[in-house]
Amino acid sequence: AKKLIVIGVTGTSGKSTTVDFITRILEEAGNKVVSNSSIRFKMADKEWKNELKMGMPGRFFMQKLLKQGVAAGCKYAVLEVTSEGIKQHRHLFINFDTVVFTNLSKEHVESHGGFENYRSEKLKLFKAAKNVHIVNSDDENAKYFLEISANQKVTFGLESGDINLKNTRFKLNILGDFNNYNALAAIAVAKTYGISMEACRKALEKVRGVPGRMEVIQKDPFLVIVDYAHTPDQLEKVYQTFSSWSENSKFEILNSKFVCVLGSCGGGRDTWKRPVLGKVADRYCNQIIITNEDPYDEDPLEIMEQVASGIKNHPHHIVLDRKEAIKKAIALAEPGNAVIITGKGSEPLMCVAGGKKIPWSDKQVVLSNI
Questions:
Q1: What is the helix (H) or strand (E) element at residue 178, kind and residue range?
Q2: Cα→Cα distances 352→110, 264, 266, 293, Å
Q3: 19 within 8 A of 100, measured Cβ to Cβ
Q4: Which of 83, 152, 157, 177 could cross-link with 137 by S-S, CB 3.0 to 4.6 Å?
């Protein structure tokens, strides 16, 4: 890490996309980059899927990745930094030059023993990095990150902040207004290292999608989307995006009927959010299919029943087999509808009882049924 300029990205949502945006901008400016995210690893001109089901792997893995980056002639490292990774000290012995805070909402609260402890883990990254702190000033938790001393502090936001939509002009060709925040964070990093706005614009306008993040699998006769959303806040933002777009007939959606497939990410954790996910789906979806995600050693049917307990107003189906659930959603969809499949995104594995990991792809299941 001492031979690289290391940039760390933490927060609840947007980490992987922000890592991707930063990497693309740095490359557009002529730099070689090594990066990791929950989606993939990148090493100069090579990239491969992250099949570890960890956004931030262990210290030996990370140090080896960085060493390989140095050997490949990389100047920058862009790393996704998770709260679990920080809790397990995986960020130690990495000299972060710049750290980025995207946003914070309830997640892993049981694992960390409460939201405040979860936030404290994120703050540890900023306390360990003393040079540049980049903070989303629109987030209500920004003040905690801005209190930590640094050589330079840069804020970003839609209307306020050092980097905002008023003083920044770019066109994103991907779905979700929330990606504006991810782009602004990446631009803030770029400006810190003297990279031109033109390079930022070129890099961002080339992005046509990030695997498993608002990924369009089909447009006609009905829209099919796969997304990683697995917290209530993330899920609501996905549904809100399509609610506003259906009203404006984007993607030729002729009506606002949503057929939604969801579960509850990770058995044995965050049980509080299960009925809340059901409640969010109930507000936006016309047909709801609750299915299996990553039950680990917990009873998957019990998890699904807990999600269903939040649904009061719309038809819902409990389908244990995720392949069958996606197949049912596609069968229920009519021309002009939107099928929104959330929870797994581009994850290549499903974790079940006994420590088993089953190869998985929401996208491939969709493609085999349309």
A1: none
A2: 20, 13, 10, 9
A3: no
A4: 157
Predicted confidence (pLDDT) at residue 107 exceeds the cutoff of 80: no
Model-level pTM?
Answer: 0.92
Segment 168-173 shows an average pLDDT of 87
Q: Which residue has the tokens 């998985």?
A: 360
- Six-digit token string for 345: 């995104």
Residues 6+ apart with CB under 8 A from 289: 259, 260, 261, 262, 316, 317, 319, 325, 328, 329, 332
CA-wise closest residue to 62 among 27, 95, 87, 30: 95
Nearest Cα to 223, choosing from 361, 327, 344, 333? 333
CA distances from 167 to 152, 153, 162, 164 (A): 20, 18, 9, 6
CA–CA separation, 85 and 138 (whole Å): 25
Query: Residue 116 class from Cβ within 10 Å (0-12 exposed, 13-18 middle, 19+ buried)?
Result: exposed
pLDDT tens track for 266-322: 888 889 999 999 999 999 999 999 999 999 999 999 999 999 999 999 999 999 999
Q: Amino acid identity of 325? A: A
Instruction: Write down the H helix ranges in 29-141.
Output: 59-71, 83-87, 109-112, 115-128
